[in-house]
Amino acid sequence: MSSNRPNILFIMTDQQRFDTIAALGNPNIYTPNLDRLVRRGLTFSRAYSTCPVCVAARYTIRTGCEPPTTRVFSNARPRPVAGQPAEMERRCGPYLGRTMSSLGYRTFGIGKFHTAPPDEDLGYETCLRSEETYDRTTRQHDSYASWLAREHPEYNFLEHLMGERTEMYYVPQRSPLPPELGVERWAADRAVEQIAGGNFDRPYFGFISFVGPHPPLAPPIPFNRMYDPDRMVDPVAGDIKTDHMDEEIPFMRYAIWADAINPALARIIKARYYGEISYIDSCIGKILDAVESNQNSENTVICFFSDHGDLLGDHHGWQKQNFFEGSCRIPFLLSWPAQLPMGEKREELVSLADLFGIATEAAGHCELREGADLLGILRGDFPPRPFLVGMAELPGSEFFKVVVVKDEWKYIFMANGGREQLFNLRADPDELCNRAAEADDVRAELNALATARCEILGAREALEGDRLRSFPYQERPRKRIYQFDKSKGVASFPENPADAVSNFFVPAIASTPDVFRRGNDPPGSNDKSDDLGIGLKPGDPHYRAYVGPPDRYDLVAAMTFNLLTTLGLRQHHSLLDLGCGSLRIGRLLIPYLNKEKYVGIEPNEWLVREGVRNEVGETLLQIKRPRFFFTDSPAMLNEMKDRFDFAVAQSIFSHCGLDLITQWISFIAHTLTPSGALIATFFPSETDNTKTGWVYPGCVSYKPDTLRKVATQAELRFEILDWRHPRQTWALFAAPKFDTAWFQNKPLTWNTMLESVVSKE
């Protein structure tokens, strides 16, 4: 295989129309960096998304296969038919990221991948996700959301990081974040890190998937005010009977709250849509600068494209999932200065499935799968594809539709009512005149091509005998789409408006819940701040009782705080509070430590909420900016850049199986500074507990030698501390440079510590 293989970079936007690049004829938009790509290579003016919706398009890209094989015809999960393997990669072959890795490329994928399941392995060596919506688990694992929460926790109260959805989906907005913190800039910055800081012994294959300009349309300052709505061109609209022959269009228009949009608002929306594109363009510029700073920039393949478009008001509709040009036609720019012409426009029909062949052929091992050999076509080795077929919605369902593009003609068949549309794109580029009745010979020819395409496995259900299956026309009941941030516990508008205020909570939270030991919501905690839970037993559903005996809540806090400060904790140190609970210790540590020096980990978000409300107060959070990670997984520590001077696990190891203790100590050891230390309590005994995982509210015990061995494996020193605890024993897990000499053969007291400090001075 050639040692001069190119770097390969795919850059994708979401829901960007074909007509939104200045250099390609749109004088109303500013896209200097996309214009650079136009000049750098080839523009394919007839590129299409054969199933114009997010999930389906992405599976076509990552597999090189069309929807009958992927069996993704919408944003729903794949549904293989009899005779097809159940697993996607068995049906289609290894994903693009995995394939390029196997070809010796250093691979990275960054951005929106829209997989099912959400954490699906895509085969990239480095995979950093930034999805649009969250639930209680996905926000924690989202690379962008975690980065923002970790680095800028002041924004973590936001319920949607990219703008409001539901009734605000197509309402012009402004991003709540500055441009340097937006998801598009984050993706560009991560891409630059990969391009500039990688292993140059191997070429790279990178896939950058921007979230925008998919709604909500919320560009950051100053991109929100780049475009005067009165200078925007009105949407293209024809006879509504023709425009709405596809029942999906009026159905979706109502579902996404766009039924009340008038022409004036449509122009405002377009202005914000253009603002989003200009913002992304500025981010693409940073990526291009990184590419061009390398000596072999001319031997770098760059392909820019979108997953699909957006009607954006055309044909009295919004969104995608239909076969009007605004929805299914996409920008497609391909450049490779070392091999391809520059600044040329091409008219070959292109599908997103062709991307697989572009990447693998450039890498020296062409694998087309169901796409065309576009590079071979450009060399003249193969003829262009004569026509292109696309499908949307499940074959055999009443909402299935198929499109054929051939020469200047586009034919659309809709199973719902057996409706047909035929447009001459050369004479009627706006698709206003349905010529299905008057050009019957063309209609019949393209219908036959559509029928033949449906004869393959995965699409046969669309046929009834030798014809495309049709159903009596029906309109679906109109319903709204509600998209709230479930990671914040919001699923709908409240029945009682006051509940929205009373349930709102704004701590500087660093992540959202993953695994909860006793459920997602407060188990009956009392709202009265003067209710201290006295008389309740440990584990009862009260914020003080749940973490231990309520009558010792203050005693345990004072004991732990005094031990930490005696061992050397000072205000400038960073501290990790493992199992921070209702901030029993945190209520003393947060005001003591400097800003952003306290980090708490806790699987039960309700405990922290109650601790903030009853013990700390939100004002102190705004001043001190502590961070909280809601998880019981030690792996969270891998995502932190922090290095801690101290860590504390009070009454945590007394409820852990040895498997968890080993994991926690191993991960904590890697986050400690060379002079850092963990202090933890445990129940000593002559035998070891054999349970695994979390054990609560029950308790477990261990031999001190067992914990000593765990510490040694983590390269930490283990000591039993002579510091009284009401029930348990304190242990020290110290990094190599942590100073314990001052209390060897002396009592561990404040006075001993002070004598040591004075003697050193």
Mean pLDDT: 91
CATH topology category name of the largest domain: Alkaline Phosphatase, subunit A
Percent of residues in β-strands: 15-25%
CATH superfamily of the largest domain, please? Alkaline Phosphatase, subunit A
Q: Give the C-level CATH assignment of the largest domain.
A: Alpha Beta
Straight-line distance between termini: 66 Å
* Number of DSSP helical runs: 23
Structural class: alpha/beta
The number of domains is 2
* CATH architecture assignment name of the largest domain: 3-Layer(aba) Sandwich
The geometry reads as elongated
The biggest sheet, with number of strands, parallel, antiparallel or mixed sense and barrel status, is: 9 strands, mixed
Helix content percent band: 25-40%
Oligomeric nature of the chains: single chain
Report the count of strand segments.
Answer: 23
What's the Cα radius of gyration?
30 Å
Low-pLDDT segments, ≥5 res: 508-529
3D architecture notes:
The structure is a single chain. With 761 residues, the protein is of the alpha/beta class. It folds into two domains: 7-385, Alkaline Phosphatase, subunit A (3-Layer(aba) Sandwich), CATH 3.40.720.10; 539-760, Vaccinia Virus protein VP39 (Rossmann fold, 3-Layer(aba) Sandwich). The protein is 29% helix and 16% strand. The chain is elongated. The protein starts with 6 loop residues before the first strand and ends with a helix. 47% of the residues are buried. Mean pLDDT is 91; it is low at 508-529.
